[in-house]
Amino acid sequence: MADRRVLTNLRGLLTPDPARTWAVDRIPDAALALQDGRVAWLGPAADLPATWADAPRVDGGGAWATPGFVDPHTHLLFGGNRSGEFNRRLHGVSYQQIASEGGGIRETVRATRSATVEELVASGEARLKAFRERGVVHLECKTGYGLELEAESRLTAAYAELKQRGWSLDVTLLPAHDLAPEFNGDAEANARAVAEDWLPELVRRHPGVARFCDVFVETGVYSADQGRRIFEAGKRLGLLPRVHADELTRTGGAELAAELGAASADHLMFCSEAGMKAMAEADVTPVLLPGTTLFLGMRDWAPARRMIEAGCRVALATDFNPGSCPCVDPLTILRLGCLQLRMTFEEAFTAMTLHAARSLRHGDLGHLHPGAKADVLLWGVNEMLELIYWVGEPYRPRFLPA
Ligand code: NIG
Ligand code: FE
């Protein structure tokens, strides 16, 4: 017997329309018909088809229903935290200066290398719960704080265990997150190790766990050429590229992502106009991370408006990580999208649902049209816009009961 239910007593329903790039349906007094964990019908309650007349009702309690948030860029697993370094930054030392002294990512690498798989899983699960309470139903998660094969392998094993426990995740291999201390600044040799040894071995040891690979293409880290070679090796292993691109300086990361047919190019504070056009043409999703710009105290916000005008389907994400954005809160990102990237509420909402899911190649997440997974959030507000309007308010959604 099919499991059929109708969600009623909704103040309204807000969902992006997967058939149109930036269109958001706003349906007052809505109902949502669900069958076997999927959306079967949505519309005004008064128009509910007669075939649903005797299906059990779920009371929405007068809330607004929306799809769950999808976070397409996190560095979920790492050891330790960097509050000490943060305090130094508050005293005027720059992020790059701290990194050049062997702190920054390297500090987290030391703490991560000494963590066991069990410790990584335990802290990861606590973070996933915090994301979930705030309405995030699916995340992309990167390795990258191991910077050598065994530690990267433990991170991948920890993600496999979290997936096994039922968390909805996509894993991205990022052993090229920084130069490993063992290579003494020899990016060329490090890139070769990643492409020729580490990625193939990680995929061999953990078959089916990762879907994507990523490289930090940045001045002083990996060049676009080195990135290209790593991504090509990843592609041969069935891993789709996602690129840390144009984050601190303009390095041609967006252009590289377009050339490779990457799923996404992320950060992009220093993206060129040519890069934006290339991403639009190659259907690369720009994933913008305004929490990082805020937390690093930078002035250059990613040019979201120009990207939208260029035809890009912009997505937003937290970039959750211990150094540049220790933030699990989708509402903070939604607010920054509107207030600093100058996106409309509907655009920022679409960027954190439909376009985020699309960048991860999930057609059934990030919207509530027929066929979508019934990951429904219920918000106790009069109007959805209030989520950003009451700036510091810690709204939490309710979830549709199973
Ligand atoms: O996405 N760009 C590289 N990686 C992270 C920061 C990592 C860290 O500081 O620990 C980022 O911003
Ligand atoms: Fe990142």
SSE topology sketch:
Elements: E1 4-16, E2 24-28, E3 30-35, E4 38-44, E5 57-67, E6 69-74, H1 83-90, H2 95-100, H3 105-113, H4 117-133, E7 136-142, H5 149-164, E8 169-176, H6 187-205, E9 210-217, H7 224-236, E10 240-245, H8 253-260, E11 264-267, H9 273-282, E12 285-288, H10 290-295, H11 304-309, E13 315-316, H12 330-339, H13 345-351, H14 354-359, E14 376-379, H15 386-389, E15 398-399
Parallel strand pairs: 1-5, 6-7, 7-8, 8-9, 9-10, 10-11, 11-12, 12-13
Antiparallel strand pairs: 1-2, 1-3, 3-4, 5-14, 14-15
The structure holds N-(iminomethyl)-L-glutamic acid and fe (iii) ion.
Characterization of this structure:
It comes from Geothrix limicola. Pfam families: Amidohydro_3. This is Imidazolonepropionase. The protein has 402 residues and is an alpha/beta fold. The chain has 2 domains: 4-68 and 366-399, Urease, subunit C, domain 1; 69-359, Metal-dependent hydrolases (TIM Barrel, Alpha-Beta Barrel). Helix content is 36%, strand content 23%. It contains 15 helices and 15 strands. It has helices at 83-90, 95-100, 105-113, 117-133, 149-164, 187-205, 224-236, 253-260, 273-282, 290-295, 304-309, 330-339, 345-351, 354-359, 386-389, and strands at 4-16, 24-28, 30-35, 38-44, 57-67, 69-74, 136-142, 169-176, 210-217, 240-245, 264-267, 285-288, 315-316, 376-379, 398-399. Strands 6-7-8-9-10-11-12-13 form an 8-stranded parallel β-sheet. Strands 1, 2, 3, 4, 5, 14 and 15 form a 7-stranded mixed β-sheet that branches. Strand 9, helix 7 and strand 10 form a beta-alpha-beta unit. Helix 8 (253-260) packs parallel to helix 9 (273-282) and helix 12 crosses helix 13. The chain starts with a strand and ends with a strand. The model has no long low-confidence stretch (mean pLDDT 97). It binds N-(iminomethyl)-L-glutamic acid and fe (iii) ion (FE). N-(iminomethyl)-L-glutamic acid (NIG) binds at residues 104-105, 108, 216, 244, 247, 292, 319, 321-324. N-(iminomethyl)-L-glutamic acid binds at residues 104-105, 108, 216, 244, 247, 292, 319, 321-324.
